[in-house]
TrEMBL record:
NCBIfam families, per the entry: PRK06846.1
PANTHER family in the cross-refs: BLL3847 PROTEIN, CYTOSINE DEAMINASE
InterPro entries: Metal-dep_hydrolase_composite (IPR011059), Metal_Hydrolase (IPR032466), Metallo-hydrolase_Enzymes (IPR052349)
Gene3D superfamilies to which the protein is assigned, alphabetical: Metal-dependent hydrolases, Urease, subunit C, domain 1
Organism: Sphingobacterium suaedae
Protein name per its UniProtKB record: Amidohydrolase
């Protein structure tokens, strides 16, 4: 599909015009493309989007999905929500989406916004010495200087994510004796500065080990602040005790009603033991079900299939999610098996450019594309399903082709891409035209 991408300047100008007026006290809304309901709306400002391309169903040939049907609609946005989905109209005062495909705004579910070189001078990674503990020693040297400008660099990194269609991130934040609470405070300031166009969940992350550098004091302080998850990292390799580290995380999360998101890079027996012990602790404490995640969890890529199936089922039953950056090369995660058992899979860029890695693009749509390539998800149906990796499991169409997003009342967290359908967007990593966050036009 050939379309002309609306310019940033024109989109903002049109938005200003549209938002300047009040809409009538009655609006027509519809829960699907064919049924309208009249509802009351009193003295509310908002705006209209016309020529919005939405997916409406699949095209079939011999029971195989061979394409995706779309239609153009007009949307009304009020108070940060989708207030109406209307037949397309050429209203002069509506913002013209230029037939761009509208998708749920993307979400980066694993990133480190607090420590990055992005927005500054190029720096490649240094040669690693001494394994993970060697990297901890390097961080202890780098962090005092990084903290001086971490707020500004975080803002630049947020802008990169926005340009790639993400309006939300789960960010891990260093909490350890070198940074103390400064990294958290600096990132919170950056997020406050960007709050109109971006939101985040925060993970208190003891990058230097809970006990290896005695970060427990600072973790207890961070848990009292505005964070969402208690983090951890490689309990056996760094702290020397799986049970001690996991028990601390679990208790701290329970005491402060937080979730858990732990980095687990260990791929041997200690990695498997950590996974199984965390499953046990979550089952003992059901309040953590649906709120617990293992980031990376490389050990799953090393398991024989029978054991993998067993662990995948146990993760699903405990409602423990896996947050994977979709590694490739010598280590390919068993995403298809995890999906088979209903494990919640999320993704993120992790590092964009810092002392750990310089490969991040900022695009989670690219992660969905990489997943599709790695596992051979090449059909129209499979590609369309792969989009959920970028949107944190929200898809416009369900597996039977029924439209399930957007609905009236949904948050107006929207991304517009130059594509004819989700499958094309994933396959081509289609360019992002515009981003709307909580109804606010980002660009």
């Amino acid at each position: 599909m050939k379309t002309s991408v609306i310019s940033r300047k024109e989109f903002i100008r049109n938005t200003s015009l549209a938002m300047a007026g009040l809409f009538a006290s009655h609006s027509y809304v519809q829960g699907n493309p064919h049924q309208q309901t009249r509802v009351e709306s009193s003295n509310t400002t908002g705006y209209l989007l016309k020529n919005v391309r939405l997916e409406t169903g699949f095209l079939y040939e011999d029971e195989e999905v061979i394409g995706t049907k779309t239609e153009l609609f007009t949307l009304q946005i009020i108070d940060g929500k989708i207030a109406a989905i209307l037949p397309n109209t050429p209203l002069a005062d509506a913002i013209d989406a230029r037939e761009m495909l509208m998708l749920p705004a993307f979400r980066d579910q694993h990133i480190h916004l607090d420590k990055t070189f992005y927005g500054g001078q190029w720096q490649a990674v240094r040669k690693r010495k001494g394994g993970i503990k060697g990297m901890i020693a390097l961080e202890q040297k780098l962090l005092p200087e990084l903290l001086k400008t971490s707020t500004q660099h975080a803002e630049k990194l947020i802008e990169l994510l926005q340009s790639k269609g993400s309006s939300f991130a789960r960010s891990h934040v260093n909490i350890e004796p070198t940074s103390k609470l400064d990294s958290l405070k600096n990132l919170q300031q950056a997020l406050a500065n960007k709050k109109e166009g971006f939101s985040a969940e925060l993970v208190a992350f003891p990058q230097h080990g809970l006990f290896y550098t005695d970060s427990t004091r600072w973790m207890k302080e961070a848990a009292k602040m505005d964070i969402d998850f208690i983090g951890g990292v490689d309990p056996y390799t760094i702290d020397g005790s799986i049970e001690r580290s996991v028990d601390f995380m679990v208790q701290l999360a329970l005491d402060h009603q937080k979730g858990i998101d732990m980095h687990l890079h260990e791929s041997g027996d200690s990695g498997l033991q950590t996974v199984e012990y965390l499953i046990k602790k979550v089952n003992e404490n059901p309040a953590l079900k649906g709120k617990t995640y293992l980031s990376h969890c490389f050990v799953l890529a090393k398991l024989e299939q029978p054991k993998l199936e067993q662990v995948a089922e146990a993760l699903s039953n405990a409602q423990i999610g896996i947050v994977s950056t979709i590694p490739f090369g010598g280590l390919v995660m068993p995403i298809p098996t995890l999906y088979k058992y209903g494990v919640n899979i999320q993704t993120g860029n992790d590092s964009i450019i810092d002392h750990w890695n310089t490969w991040g693009s900022g695009s989670v749509l690219q992660k969905a594309n990489l997943m599709a390539q790695l596992y051979g998800y090449s059909t129209e149906f499979q590609l369309s399903r792969s989009l959920k990796l970028a949107t944190n499991n929200i898809l416009p169409l369900d597996d039977s082709g029924k439209q399930q997003w957007p609905k009236v009342g949904d948050a107006a967290d929207l991304v517009f891409v130059d594509a004819s359908c989700s499958a094309e967007a994933v396959s081509r990593i289609s360019s992002v035209s515009s981003l709307i966050h909580h109804g606010h036009l980002v660009f």
